[in-house]
Amino acid sequence: MSPLVWLITGSTSGLGAALTNYIASRGDKVIATGRKVEERLGHLKAANVALLELDITAEATTIATQARKAWDIFGRIDVLINNAGVSSMRSAEEADDDYTKNMFEANLFGHMRVTRAFLPLLRSQGEGCIAFTSSSTAWAGLPFMSQYAASKAALSMYAECLHKEIAPLGLSLVSHYMANPMSHMPGDLAKAAAFMVDVVTRNVKDTEVSTQEPTSRKWAVRVALGSDGAGFVRQKCTEMLRLLDDWQEASTGTDRDGEASDAVREMLEFTTII
Ligand SMILES: NC(=O)c1ccc[n+]([C@@H]2O[C@H](COP(=O)([O-])OP(=O)(O)OC[C@H]3O[C@@H](n4cnc5c(N)ncnc54)[C@H](OP(=O)(O)O)[C@@H]3O)[C@@H](O)[C@H]2O)c1
Asked: Which entry of 112, 133, 203, 241 is 20 to 30 Å from 159 by CA?
């Protein structure tokens, strides 16, 4: 099995740093990217660890140049992890345009730009995986987190639509739902990083899946991390099903009279993520 080549955005701290360390320790190759990487991550440089300056809010042309440079480092990239992100709390009333724009630049538009820069390269390679670090706040409404949650919810749907586009090209995608919005929640970064790597590697060609999870588990486009992350998602889905049941008659009552439902069935079949 040849080592995989990973590129991680936002490697300079937190989960990105944990991913970089874990991937390097398993013998794969990793391109750790971020802002001021030479200064902050210089100590990590090794035969299988390269650094690349990448501010995901830079202009598209700058990001495309950095993507090309990244590709040339090891001659390919198997996994792109769009992990960088910012979060902060502010009331919806106080969140002005600048605050909102900055949040969406780092949590949504930047990831779109980075993804667009790597897509032609991955497409020509004919295989590879794009992963995103989303947030369980996309599933759970928290006060004073509306801009952050909205940016992550948008990112999650962007990822899901992208999955539909790139699957026919031989590319896979996964969106991870991190929780742990407060320090008292149970998330463990090192375990989360190892789990994310395990999830991704099960769908990258010619690799063996590590033993952390049963290999029979199917590929998933959406994966929750932590009992808090899984809890948020489960609560939302359970409650949403109950709301749908309560409102079923009223909701379907807006259909045109006498319309056949074939189109709905076909659309549901097309949009399934399972
Ligand atoms: N920890 C949590 O509780 C939690 C919960 C849910 C989701 N998440 C998500 O998990 C991901 C990682 O977060 P974390 O917990 O590891 O937080 P973190 O320690 O603050 O790390 C965020 C990383 O993103 C980088 N970053 C921010 N803006 C960037 C930009 N414009 N260009 C390049 N890099 C940029 C940061 O670099 P700088 O140091 O240069 O700013 C940092 O390396 C984020 O997407 C976050 O939203 C985290």
From this structure: 241
- What is the reported pLDDT for 263? 85
Mean pLDDT of 151-174: 96
DSSP alpha helices (H): ranges in the chain? Answer: 14-25, 37-41, 60-74, 97-104, 110-125, 146-166, 189-201, 226-252, 262-271
Domain 5-246+260-271 has CATH 3.40.250.10: no
Name the active-site residue from 134, 135, 136, 156: 134
Binding pocket residue ranges, ligand 1, CB within 6 Å? 9-10, 12-16, 34-35, 55-57, 83-87, 106, 110, 133, 135, 178-181
Please tell me the number of Cα atoms within 13 Å of 3 on its side-chain side.
15
**pLDDT, averaged across the chain:** 92
pTM for this predicted structure: 0.94
Pair 90, 150: CB distance under 8 Å: no
Q: Where are the domains of the chain?
A: 5-246+260-271
* 72 Cα: distance to centroid of ligand 1 (angstroms): 26
148 labelled catalytic: yes
Contacting residues for 201 by C-beta, under 8 A, at least 6 apart: 4, 207, 208, 209, 210
Annotated catalytic residue: which of 152, 156, 158, 175?
152
What CA–CA distances, in Å, run from 22 to 11, 29, 180, 189, 197?
12, 11, 20, 11, 8
Measured in Å, residue 147 CA sits from the centre of ligand 1 at 15
Answer yes or no: is pLDDT of 207 > 50.
no
